[in-house]
Amino acid sequence: MTAFIMAAKRGLNDLQDWGRQSLSWRILIPGCLLGLGLLFPEAGQIMVATISEAYLQVSVFVAFTLALIYGAERLFNFDMAAYLTGHPRAQVPIAAFLGALPGCGGAIVVVTQYVNGHVGFGALIAVLTATMGDAAFLLLAREPMTGLMVFGLGMVVGSLSGYVLEAIHGREFMRQQSLTSPEEAKRRAEAGRHRPASVKALHPIWVALMLPGVVFAVPIAMQVDPNTWFGGLSVYQPVTLLGFAGGVLALMMWAAHLSSDPGHQYTAANPNDLAEPQPTPTSRVINDTNFVTVWVIAAFLLFELGVHFTGADLNSWFAVWAPLTPLIAALVGFLPGCGPQIIVTTLYLTGAIPMAALFANAISNDGDALFPAIALAPRAAIVATLYTGIPALIVGYAAYFMMG
Prior knowledge:
The chain has helices at residues 2-21, 24-39, 41-76, 80-86, 91-100, 105-115, 121-130, 135-142, 144-169, 182-193, 203-221, 238-255, 281-310, 314-320, 325-333, 339-349, 355-364, 370-376, 378-403, and strands at residues 265-266, 274-275. By secondary structure, it is mainly α. The chain crosses the membrane at residues 23-42, 54-72, 92-112, 119-141, 147-165, 201-222, 234-256, 291-311, 317-335, 342-360, 380-403.
């Protein structure tokens, strides 16, 4: 069993290293979008409007929220990991709170603390149940009250699930020693050193597009078109073009793997000690916002272009399969990463799936926190994420039958 897990981990690490070093597959994405727009002008117009919408209605709010979170973290110098270790009785609700926060940072903190033996299995269950990952940013930007509802739901369900399963299995359930050998850690360190160099020269351009984007995003959220503020120039849709430029820049930085910081650094004293450099809050905001932007653009385009080319009425499709949508959404939640979950949230926001399916996916999905969990404690990660499916189905179908 250990040999199988080691082989699976080596395969996962090889895939991650290839993804870090190879640029070709990412560069193909904007190239394909450009070709599609040139071949089908109507699709090109849809892409311009959709990318601008994703940027002005989601990305700017993500950047603003992350700036507040990372700035406060740097200002107050608060170490949440140390606090968790020192308060064992409060670990489960604190873990649920960290998981419910938008993004995956809080969830990743709890996962690593579980692997290191500082928090129990209940905290792991609580954080994976409560987290909605980066999809929470999209929901908060478009429907803030629904986002707050999911936030509270995740905290309550995550805390209950954590306490119940820790009472059943105990704090040390499924914990294991790290399977990363010194040779494997050294190989990963070498791969990390060869990651693409940072390109901070683009930061001023990124910020120059983001700041007016924040200003224009507020009236857009209030159903006011700021393009009309420009008088005769409104015919050129300047605000829409600004949003398109910001979205394209985020997409290109992601596609070209232009990171804000040089990547992982490793201490020489112990090759198993993976030390992360401390990037600036601005760098973290740019990196995380670009990642969310790419997936939001992908989700928006998938929906809009799918409807354009097929003429399909997705609302009627899912209406036929409505009883299965909570189950399907919960199963999608088992997929690692935030991309599939952003797509589910987009389907909810467009009216294609009911709120019950959103609840099921929000509870079931583990966001990016599942990646370090699989890498560091694969058996615990699999068991924990399967456990999150139980409350996801209960809550999803309870909401489905209560809401009609």
